[in-house]
């Protein structure tokens, strides 16, 4: 049985040379990665990066050393690198920190700093996504939710079903009680007028608006409890 030993130290030029050699012999990127892991261990290089180097050699590159970059500064956290990292993540949400560091020729720590601390990305289901909504996004969401709530209080079912023949004289008034569960249960128990005949497209639009209203009411109720000071006499919408 063939004996294999894991090398504890290596250079990136050495690994690239092995990839180039195996690629020249017609070995696939996946098999090259498996052979690298057998000798150098699982932390040698990701499978995606091995495949990328195979494509690079196929495009005509011969050298395994880093290509000198003109005007390259000492620090890795430059605006140019930040922009490149952002473009790489947007192009491939599953790219790893090691792949980013390898592509830019910077350390793992610098790549992690750019991704987490500067660009504010985090991993969700192995994909990079922006972190929490900004304050501007939160304010816009609150404004739209309150606008929907006010329109419902003013127009009632006409706001929900603009294409129906519910008149303002026949619509049922409804007052906000301040209890979201009571409001939703009461609204769900009502029967729509029999004269409302809507096709599937109109019904789908109504269901969408009902969902928007539910979200708006929940956000407005939650916000009123936060923004209203304790022992305040300010009424809830």
From TrEMBL:
Domain Mos1 transposase HTH as annotated: residue spans: 12-60
Coiled-coil residue windows: none
A UniProt-annotated Pfam family: HTH_48
PANTHER family per record: MARINER MOS1 TRANSPOSASE-LIKE PROTEIN (PTHR46060)
The name this protein goes by in its record: Histone-lysine N-methyltransferase SETMAR
Organism of provenance: Trichonephila clavata
Gene name, Swiss-Prot/TrEMBL: X975_08604
């Amino acid at each position: 049985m063939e004996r294999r030993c894991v090398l504890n130290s290596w250079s990136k030029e050495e690994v690239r040379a092995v990839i180039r050699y195996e690629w020249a012999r017609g070995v696939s990127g996946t098999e090259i990665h498996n052979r690298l892991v057998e000798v150098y261990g699982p932390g040698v290089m990701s499978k995606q990066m091995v495949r990328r180097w195979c494509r690079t050699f196929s495009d005509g590159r011969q050298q395994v050393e880093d290509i000198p970059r003109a005007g390259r500064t000492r620090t890795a956290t430059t605006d140019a690198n930040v922009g490149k990292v952002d473009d790489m993540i947007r192009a491939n949400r599953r790219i790893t920190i090691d792949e980013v560091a390898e592509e830019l020729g910077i350390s793992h720590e610098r790549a992690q700093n750019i991704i987490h601390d500067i660009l504010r990305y985090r991993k969700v289901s192995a994909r990079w996504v922006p972190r929490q909504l900004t304050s501007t996004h939160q304010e816009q969401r609150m404004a739209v939710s309150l606008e929907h709530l006010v329109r419902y209080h003013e127009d009632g079912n006409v706001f929900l079903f603009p294409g129906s023949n519910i008149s303002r004289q026949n619509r049922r008034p409804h007052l906000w009680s301040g209890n979201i569960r009571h409001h939703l249960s009461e609204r769900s128990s009502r029967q729509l007028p029999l004269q409302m005949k809507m096709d599937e497209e109109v019904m789908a639009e109504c269901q969408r608006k009902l969902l928007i209203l539910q979200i708006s009411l929940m956000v407005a109720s939650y916000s009123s409890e936060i923004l209203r000071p304790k022992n305040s006499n300010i009424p809830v919408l």
